[in-house]
Structures are given as structure tokens and as C-alpha cells.
Amino acid sequence: MSKKNQALLNALQEHFNTRLISSTLALNEVTIEVAAKDLVSVCQTLRDEFGFSQLMDVCGLDYLEYGQADWETDKTSAGFSRGVSKAAYHDVHPERPARFAVVYHLLSLQENQRLRVRAFAEGEPPCVPSLIDLWTCANWYEREAFDLYGILFDGHPDLRRLLTDYGFIGHPFRKDFPISGHVEMRYDPEKGRVVYEPVSIEPRVLVPRVIRHDNRYQ
Q1: Please, which residues bridge with residue 55 across strands?
Q2: DSSP strand E in 27-97: where?
């Protein structure tokens, strides 16, 4: 499979050339990155000429303080030994100042291959073109990314929340969204309805469990 994926990577690099911001083969998976303005045309080519007929998933990413901030907890304030590299993401990739990205997972049924496509959202609020005209199933995937990350999809016919409540404030998968949220809800038997109140629990962050791949576990 690695030779097949390497052949795919070479073909993509040759075909798209400078339209690819980056292209890698890691962990036996091919990932390409394109600018938001090229997203629709590149994905249409991937569908029509490279056989990636199925859109499997769309997800958002928030790179806020990626590789920069410690995880301050009630146990320790130095978290880099448990997390990502201490190098700042924007120091490693100064050409990508955007905070939010959208990742598309494509499947070629005829070649039995998968491909990951990433595009950074532009502007404020962050926005990328919708792919609903290429893959109808992008409808709910894009609504989910909008709901959880606040990423807009230009051209989406019905961009509204999908998972959170109608009156929900904010986007819960953003890195700066409080873990406990802004409000809590409960059923009030006296009023006979659901009521919203300020959060009453105290936020508490513990040290997360991280699987390390080193000689201690071989």
C-alpha cells in the first residue's frame, strides 16, 4: 500500500504543482493542503479525474496556541512533556497565519485509497467554500463544523446549528471555549419548563492520559 500511496502522492504533486501548499505521506496516509480559493476546483478534479467519488467526513481544526501554551492544571503547570512539540505552530509555518482549518477525508472506491485534504479558513468569521455541489453529504458535515467551530461555508444553502441547542451561545470545540460552558440548563417543576442558569460547577482540569511510543512500552 505504501508504494501505491507514494504513486498517488507523486501524481498529485505533478498534476496540481504550485496549487499544493504542502503534500506529505505519513503513517501510510496521503495529506495535501490547498488554499481556500482553490478548494472547490481541486476537489472537483480529485473526484472526476482521480476517482475520489466519496466524501467520508469533514471536520474542523482549531490551531489556537498550537504547540505554545502549557496545560495548567491543579497538578502541574508544565505540560509540554505530555503534549505537542514546544515549537510554536506559526513559527514552523509562518505562511499560515489562520487559526481554523477544515479537513476533508476522501475515498476512492475503485482504487481502494483514501486522501486527506486540508484548507485553512480565511477572514473573520473564518470561511471556506462549501463543497455541497460536489458531494451532497457535505451538507450535515459542514453544519457540524459550523456548529462546533464557527467556521462558515460559503454557498451552503442551510447553514445552521446541528448538534447544540437552539439558543446555544458560542462554539464548544473552540480552544478558548470554557470546558464547563457558559450556562447550564435544568427542568424547573415549579415553572413547568426548562430554565437556563449560570454554571454552578467549578471547572477542574486534570492531567490527560497520553500514550507514549518509546522503549518503555516495546
Answers
A1: 106
A2: 29-34, 54-62
Q: Which residue has the cell 491543579?
A: 74
| CA 112 – CA 98 distance, rounded (Å) | 33
Say if residue 149 is exposed, middle or buried (CB neighbours under 10 Å; 0-12, 13-18, 19+). buried
Nearest to 138 by CA among 71, 57, 84, 203: 57
Q: Please tell me the pTM assigned to this model.
A: 0.78
Question: What confidence tens digit (pLDDT) does each residue in 84-97 have?
Answer: 444 444 444 555 56
Can you tell me the distance from the alpha carbon of 201 to that of 198, in angstroms, rounded to the nearest whole number? 9
Residue 32 contacts residue 116 (beta carbons within 8 Å): yes
* CA–CA separation, 120 and 157 (whole Å): 21
In tens, the pLDDT along 116-156 reads 999 999 889 999 999 999 999 999 999 999 999 999 999 99
Contacts of 154 (CB under 8 A, 6+ apart): 127, 128, 129, 130
Grid coordinates given for 52 = 475520489
